[in-house]
Amino acid sequence: MNSSIINGGSITMERPFQIEIYADVVFFLNLVMDYFILWIVSKIIKKKVSFKRLLLGAFLGALFYCLMIFIPIFRTTYNLIGIIGLPMIPLMITYKPQSLKNLIKLFILFHGTAFALGGAGIALFYYLNIGKVIQDAFQFKIENFPIVLLFVSCVLSYFFIKTIWSWIRKYTTKEGTLYRIKISFNGQQIDASALLDTGNALYDPFSQSPVIVVEFSSVKAFLPESIQKLFYDNKENDLSLLTQSIIQTPIKAKLRMIPFSSLGMPNGMLVGFRPDQVEVIEHDNTSTVLKDVVIGIYNQRLSKDNRYQALLHPDIFHNIA
């Protein structure tokens, strides 16, 4: 029968073999692993997360795991409830999900990334024999300190999960669907019809928020007269005049410059602004309130028959944090 002895920050397993597991090593490896996984998830969902929050989430994840392994009173939590419940805390602190549904999606994506990372590591080590290659190159035993292998696995897992996530978004997005939207800004609100357009790949370069393209005629009431005049004179792409107008306006902190490229305009620039919120209303009258988006202002018609006045970014329906 197996038994274990806790001695000086380690667990010694006795019969039929003896292994010492050191708490500091387990904590460090889990800290590194959790940080990489949280970072990969943040890149996949395109959510800007600070280094401090990523590190805090990884620290808590590693701490909870070590408590379950090394502290007898916490070992009773090493069950299905503990395995599911405890990881929720680092996810809530790191990503601050707005609903239970989003938290569950993050939980699934987090563990999917962890499984992919582990699978990539095993494949690299056994099938490609990369463990021996790295060991010879760096003169240390990778089985004792697998940091390089971990890094390579993280890179491969990131691209693998990102590809799978892109496929999921592509096949679950209802392209061409029309929605009603309500844009709120500085105490005002406008309504518009919006088309879900998978070709809209614009992001705000500053915040990495998805951009909803809206006709100038729909949002002009939000803009100060100096910027309205630039659009009326078709000079919204004149950077010198635009910069001068932005500096003088009281809403300059909320204005954005969004680069884009298209046929006939390889280095275009959209004026945009960050709204207070955008409410997207579906045909069954269910609605989604978006706060982490940017409105890009387009100075022409988006639809010849005026069926819609805005183009929705496909990512707004896959924002799980």
From TrEMBL:
The active site is at 197. It comes from the Bacteria. The keyword Transmembrane applies. Pfam families: Peptidase_U4 (PF03419). Keywords: Membrane, Transmembrane, Transmembrane helix. GO terms for molecular function: aspartic-type endopeptidase activity. The keyword tRNA processing does not apply. The chain crosses the membrane at residues 21-42, 54-71, 77-95, 107-127, 147-168. One of its GO terms (biological process) is proteolysis. NCBIfam families: spore_II_GA (TIGR02854). This is Sigma-E processing peptidase SpoIIGA. The gene is spoIIGA.
